[in-house]
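Example: HAD-IIA family hydrolase.
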Amino acid sequence: MFNYKTVCLDLDGTVYRGIEPIPEAVRFIRRLQEAGIEPFYITNNASMTRTQLRQKLAGFGVITTEEFIYTSGMAAAQFVKRELPDAKVFVIGTAALREELETVGLELVEEGSNAVIMGIDKDITYTKLATACLEVRAGAKLIATNPDHAFPSHQGFLPGNGAFVKLVEFSTETDAIFCGKPSSIMLELIQQQTGASKEDMVLIGDNMKTDLLAGVNFGIDTIHVNSGVDRPETVQASAMSVSRYIESMDEL
Ligand SMILES: [Mg+2]
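Written out as structure tokens, the predicted fold is:
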């Protein structure tokens, strides 16, 4: 039985694969909406704004609003705002990440920061990485959107944000704080927004080390769907206590 009131869906590998929708997921979302349940979409992708993600979903026939979309960029912005409310931040990342940080009122600076925030930046340079290292050595906290070491492309796996964060960590001998999954920051924010109890929440995702671990860390039920990166055998072989395994969301 599927009795959850607050349904959190991963995006890539769960609702779509790159530019292709997953039809079973789209059908499931429609069934939820017809039952009066608006699902939440939570993604480690900090390179798109919530508006861009809403438009992408709409292109697949999934109609929602920005308040139901959570990105690791937004999570980083909320986290910094909560921990360092008057922070000046040095950012490596896309315009989407900068927009999230400015939305919560953080001041973006090129030096003299209290926090360095790193998200994927395809225009990354030695100078940007050097500045990040200098800022961290001068006392800025190192905060990152997501730890993904690689992401798929038509050419194969390309270096993800985590690879560049590792460089700064290694050079400065400092550990970064990651705000995307498997951190449960996004789930905490959803719980605050809805007032849901943990028993009423579920997380559905394809990735064991990010999605399912975030749900387990937060203490809610998790469902593994076999439409993305991890096969069920891999998840079962780990010691992780996943609530349910499904081949597709037609089973829900
Ligand atoms: Mg995924």
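Residues 23-34 form the longest helix (12 residues).
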